[in-house]
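Hi L.,

You mentioned the student needs an example of a multi-chain input paired with its predicted structure. This one should do, with 924 residues in total across all chains.
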Amino acid sequence: MGIIDLVGLEVRLGGRTVLDGLTGELQGQAIGLLGPNGAGKSTLINTLLGFHLPSKGTASVFGLDTQRDRARIREGIGYMPENDSFIGNMSGVRFVRYMAELAGLPAGEALERAHEALFYVGLGEVRYRQVSTYSLGMKQLVKLAQALAHGPRLLILDEPTNGLDPMARQRMIQAIKEIRKEGSIRLLISSHLLRDIDETCDEVLILKNGRIAALCNIEEERRSNKNFMELETVGATEKFSVSIRGRGCECACFPGGRIKLVMPEDMEARDLYVIASEHGVQIRRMNLRRDSLEDIFLRAMENEGGRPEHVSL
Amino acid sequence: MNDRIIFEDVSKFYGEVLGVNRISLSIPPGITTLVGPNGSGKTTLMNLMTGLVRPSSGHISVLGLTPADANEFFSAVGYCTQFDSFPRGLTGWQFVYDGLMLHGMNEIDAFGLTRESLERVQLGDAAGRAIASYSKGMRQKICLAQAIAHHPRVLVLDEPLNGLDPMARAESLALFQDLGRQGMHLVISSHILDEVDRISDRVVLITGGYLIAEGNIHQVRQEVRDKPMQVLVRCDHPELLASRMFAVNHCAEARMHADGRGVFLRTGDIDQFYSLLNGIAVEGLIKIETVAPADDDANAIYQYLIGSDGSAS
Amino acid sequence: MKEGGQSMSVYKHNYRAYTGRVTPLWTRILVLARYGLAEVWSSKISIGLFTVSLAPFLVFLVGIYLANNPIARFLITKGNSPGFAINAAFFLKMLEVQSWFALVLASWVAPRLITFDLADNALPILLSHPISRLGYVFGKFIALFAALSVVTWIPSLMLFAYQSYSSPQPWAFANFPIAAGLLAGAMIWIVFLSILGLALSSWVKWRVVATGIIFAAVFVPAGVGGIVSAILRTKWGLILNVPVMMTELWCRLLGAPDPMRPGQAIPTAAIAAMLAAACFICMAMLNKRIRAREVVRG
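Structure written out for the whole complex:
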């Protein structure tokens, strides 16, 4: 049984069917939630938290039904919402402690773990200041701290890197990776940044128009994309690409000397270098294609008409 | 020069608070990305560029125009801020149309231009609804629509991809590249550095109100001389590769990758390095799997020049 | 962390899971109430208001003392003042005064309980814990109810006890209905005030405005009711006048003489219905505003 189970889940809001018959089992250690705006990601998260009731079907977390066992589910969840969400006139410690006590910790333990959580996310120095004086990055981190303090089994993060500058974003991703490594917490991360999901998640759920467009395991996909390569070249790129096509590669050229190609079975990297030196071309970058998540996402969106062809993610 | 945005020793103070200090810039046509931590002065810079604030000292000229020539200046410039607020009660169509009327156009022209810009951002069918009912991504798009509707020559965008799902991000990036190719000046601020890498020709780094670096990303990287370029090469005999490189003396530092299947090589002369590497690959004694410049991108520049605490290092 | 037989000198502080005791679900509401009360007491103005509310208590205390000690009375008033009895009318007066203080306190305290949570959108995080919307409101209600109790029925019953103690004749047993009336009357008022205060605070963004609106909610309908009564020449406009209606109710509960003319009296059932209707509207307001997410229309 997975950590999250959906069976024919339908949720109606304001007269509209927002989630339309979702069925699937989410088992990964870290699950990414992707989809265009309006696909139902927030509604799904809200349903798992028990804020919305299903009109048909069921959703269960840890095997508990979201309709009947709401309180027990919430005890085991840490939630980090997308928007600003805090109590301004409390200090960081008091806020996290308050949330931990609401989650079920006795007062003494709650205070201890509040301090621990704030240190862990990197807010140790500012924990006695009022949350309303925190910067945007700090407010995001305090949301993470309150979600962790009571030791949840499932951490739900909604756009965790929203608005963070590059360094803060790296720190957040690093924190998420460490939490994942620790092993006792499962993660559900909703984001618009494929790069973030790629770095942190092993399973991905893609929603579109309230339905599941794809549910797959990224690790397995990556392992099976062995012969897909991406090159960056300097020199006579055109002649180079003609030659490698002659050797049986499928390739596509992009501006800046970038080439994406699929090598046939009998060819290997050295052959590319040989051909390159024949044409006086320098290969400055050679990668196994990492964009399997982008492929998966594009394929899942494919059914929608009107998407321009030249879009590359 | 009349095709550049020029800042001459510009400073802006808000009372005691520093916005930007002694900034000198010359921005050519094409896409220029503005990068820096939150609170670094990016928004001040953009407000100065679009004539919304006047500098405390120094001189700004945009394509030869200053805010003193109000009509021409403001019709040459389009601005899309990071703030998510709109006049109440307006529909998307009205918002763009009213903006055009403010530029003094007649109704027929305004009508046509409104329709064109809405189509360009792919918001045609939602234009009749009130902006208050839009999702975040749609609000981002309508802001962009009003910024480009009057066909400005300079487009200043503050975090234009914030809140957009992956498909919309790719479309917006494609649109920006299109506009850049047409000869417009685009100044885009972003925290997502790998997107910055993908589209921009030039980068401007700013922190604490000071200009840290400006120019083509690769040029900037090469000028950070105290950190020679680093390349990660994954191969089957990394120690052999390192010793070969050291032997020809083009390598300042070699560091083994944690998994033992790759080596980070630092070199002062990147061109020679690649030629050598290509040669070694052709020899075939060492099987090269991937080659990746480890720090020739905006992320690395950011880390080296701005560092993790947001201050100039 | 110690490994095998060796002892380590470097301690790594990573995330650790929680394996300790979990408090029972029903106590979470008390956590809300506890933090709510802490919030109330943290404000100097609250403390000031509480202190000022003690003043009438002291005045009435002295009154009871004087009533039961004719020598003291004679000494102080030099035989000029008439005697007065400690009876239902006395306690009615006391209840009235304290209830005004309760109104002032409620209009200051109720916004402090709710507005801080709503100002920065803390509800999604709050409600993602094992607490339902009803539980949330109930927790805040308990805090407000406790605060208001301290200025209404608790001092009232204390005065009743003091009177029983200091009265020369056996007084308590005969006047027991007064005690019951005090308790019931005060409780009705503070339950009504609490629900009203919480509902109006949830509706408005700024605390000061909320304070003003709570006052207005008590007085403005009174004015409207007066106009209605005058224009339609009926007594029923009076039902909107909450202070007068409460006094009526307390009269009947305490067994004090009715200050109103016989033909003008509003039946108890009508008063109860009015209070119930007001509470119902307030609950509807709370239902609308205390939500984890707003439903997007269209």
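You could point out the following to them. Residues 304-313 of chain A have pLDDT under 50 and may be disordered. Chain A has three domains: 1-76+153-222+295-313, 85-150, 226-288.

Best wishes,
N.
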